[in-house]
């Protein structure tokens, strides 16, 4: 087969067709890991250096606004009004939500999605890679924003039973922000939308299938519908064991599912059999074990196994089981990328 | 007094008002606080744990039932203390250094308290030194270390090593938990116990102090 561009390779794979090689891209590649591999390079240079097929503009890193509250403790206020604490990772975690009392939602003013600076990284990437590599606009799942930044997780979960209207009201505000933000991204040339936010834990879904269907699926589905109305695929990331809620995920119309979490006991070969004809599978080389503490040979073997189990006929984007976080050994990430190119050539012979 | 089963069911249903009201009625009828706890509230929260483990209950139900339980436990606490009723055990819990997630820790805490444990929450992003200091000063039987990120699992190991270095390792049993944590890893780092979720944390804690 004629050599495809990264963009063509990914789009063909998402259409569940067989490309020339199994494609690869990541949700996040931590700056420390990138610097260890290619010191001082910008993200785009790094993508080109490893010849990665797509580049994801992670919203929390490139498009969210933060106000520093306590520099020594690395505490900031995120754009939704939540207090966020940063540790070693690029992404902070909310420690206090924006809304304490329900009444505060009446006067809540969401951030402005149309601010031009939010799109600077996207515009740089589009200018450099458009048509060659997939430009992926990322959005944090509205469920995660409402749960963590707006209401706080405990209040959110309790409200599912005690005050569902509170969740619906807050969710509407966040969905409106994201629909406008993503419309702008698509206008500027994004090829794919990728929504991340966990719906499950290792053991199983965070909430019942009924609640997943009522509260969590619909906001994401609105984003899928926007993507599809513009002829663009929409991918979903969620950690955890999602088998009990797989129908809800499929019903949203998502085009790809990441990472088929191995830590939660999800086997990508099993997923290939069960849902591989419905959406593209993405993952699932372990970034909890192998990529952090495995040998190069173990990384190569696991990458090969993923391709062998789920690569047949296309429909596999080989990637880590979450992200290339700061604990991933740089040499192991490079080994995974090389192994994908080596073992991922179609027709497969793994 | 024969409405223990009603208290239990109200905990299972997560009916805060009813649990509190019935606990007050029981106290007014001179039912010993310990009996209300042992025959009504604890069986209720244990059933909630069972339903969670079998996949019938999820986080919302667990939290709402926990809240219902907490109100009653708060009411009974001073009475139990005054009557010198010992807790089920003493537990120190915290999220390890570099990690600020707390929902998992807080649910374990809630379940332990609901089951009659005296729990001290040392917070999130806790350094090995802070854990050691708390273990040294307190008389805890179990130290629970939570880590939600794969990158902070190493802080759990550092905390266990710090306990060893300070000569405190044998003073407490160490339990580990959190999304990326597995039994295999817990064995590897020589933790005394691992729990995949809050209800099992209560069960394992009992086993570790010989009260199973």
Polypeptide structure, described:
Chain A has 14 helices and 11 strands. By secondary structure, chain A is of the alpha/beta class. Chain A has a 7-stranded parallel beta sheet. Chain A has a 4-stranded antiparallel beta sheet with strand order 2-3-4-5, with no helix packed on it. In chain A, β4 and β5 form a beta hairpin. Chain A is globular, with a radius of gyration of 19 Å. Chain B is of the alpha/beta class and 212 residues long. In chain B, 57% of the residues lie in helices and 13% in strands. Chain B has helices at residues 4-13, 16-28, 33-53, 59-82, 103-114, 128-137, 153-165, 183-188, 198-208; strands at 90-96, 118-126, 142-146, 173-177, 193-194. Chain B has a 5-stranded parallel beta sheet, with helices on both faces. The chains are: A alpha/beta (350), B alpha/beta (212). The A-B interface holds A 85, 87-89, 93, 95, 153-154, 157-158, 160-162, 201-208, 211, 239, 244, 263, 287-288, 292, 322, 325-327 and B 14, 55, 58-61, 63-64, 67, 98-103, 106, 124-125, 149-152, 154, 179-180, 182, 196-197.
């Amino acid at each position: 087969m004629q050599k495809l561009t990264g963009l063509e390779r990914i789009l063909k794979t998402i259409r569940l067709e067989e490309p020339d090689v199994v494609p690869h891209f990541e949700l996040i590649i931590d700056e420390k890991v990138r610097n260890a591999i290619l010191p001082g390079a910008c993200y785009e240079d790094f993508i080109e250096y490893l010849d990665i097929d797509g580049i994801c503009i992670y919203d929390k890193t490139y498009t969210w606004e933060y106000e520093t509250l306590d520099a020594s403790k690395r505490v900031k206020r995120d754009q939704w009004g939540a207090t966020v604490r940063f540790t070693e990772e690029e992404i902070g975690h909310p420690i206090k939500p924006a809304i304490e009392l329900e009444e505060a939602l009446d006067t809540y003013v969401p951030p402005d999605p149309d601010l031009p600076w939010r799109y600077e990284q996207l515009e740089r990437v589009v200018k450099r890679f458009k048509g060659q590599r997939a430009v992926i606009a990322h959005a944090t799942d509205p469920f995660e924003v409402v749960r963590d930044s707006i209401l706080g997780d405990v209040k959110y979960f309790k409200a599912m039973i005690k005050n569902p209207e509170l969740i619906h009201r807050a969710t509407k505000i966040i969905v409106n922000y994201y629909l406008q933000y993503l419309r702008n991204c698509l206008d500027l040339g994004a090829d794919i939308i990728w929504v991340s936010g966990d719906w499950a834990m290792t053991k199983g879904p965070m909430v019942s299938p009924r609640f997943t269907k009522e509260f969590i699926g619909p906001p994401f589905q609105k984003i899928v519908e926007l993507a599809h109305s513009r002829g663009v695929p929409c991918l979903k990331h969620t950690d955890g064991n999602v088998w009990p809620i797989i129908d809800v995920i499929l019903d949203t119309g998502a085009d790809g599912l990441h990472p088929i979490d191995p830590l939660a006991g999800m086997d990508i070969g099993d997923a290939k059999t069960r849902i591989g004809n419905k959406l593209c599978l993405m993952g699932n080389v372990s970034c909890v074990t192998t990529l952090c503490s495995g040998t190069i040979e173990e990384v190569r073997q696991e990458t090969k196994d993923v391709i062998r189990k789920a690569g047949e006929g296309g429909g596999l984007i080989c990637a880590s089981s979450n992200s290339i976080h700061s604990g991933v050994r740089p040499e192991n990430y490079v080994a995974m990328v090389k192994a994908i190119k080596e073992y991922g050539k179609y027709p497969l012979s793994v | 007094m024969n409405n223990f089963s009603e208290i239990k069911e109200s905990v299972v249903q997560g009916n805060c008002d009813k649990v509190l009201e019935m606990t007050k009625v029981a106290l007014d009828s001179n039912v010993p606080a310990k009996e209300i706890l042992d025959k009504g509230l604890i069986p209720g929260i244990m059933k909630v744990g069972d339903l969670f483990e079998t996949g019938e209950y999820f986080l919302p139900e667990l939290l709402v039932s926990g809240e219902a339980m907490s109100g009653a436990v708060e009411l009974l606490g001073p009475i139990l203390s005054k009557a010198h009723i010992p807790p089920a055990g003493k537990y120190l819990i915290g999220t390890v250094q570099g990690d600020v997630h707390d929902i998992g820790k807080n649910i374990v805490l809630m379940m332990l308290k609901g089951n009659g444990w005296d729990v001290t929450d040392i917070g999130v992003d806790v350094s090995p030194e802070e854990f050691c200091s708390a273990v040294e000063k307190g008389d805890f039987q179990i130290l629970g270390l939570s880590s939600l990120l794969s990158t902070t699992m190493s802080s759990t190991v550092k905390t266990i090593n710090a306990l060893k270095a300070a000569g405190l390792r044998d003073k407490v049993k160490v339990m580990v938990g959190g999304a990326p944590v597995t039994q295999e890893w817990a064995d590897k780092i020589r933790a005394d116990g691992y729990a995949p979720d809050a209800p099992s944390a209560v069960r394992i804690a009992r086993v570790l102090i010989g009260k199973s």
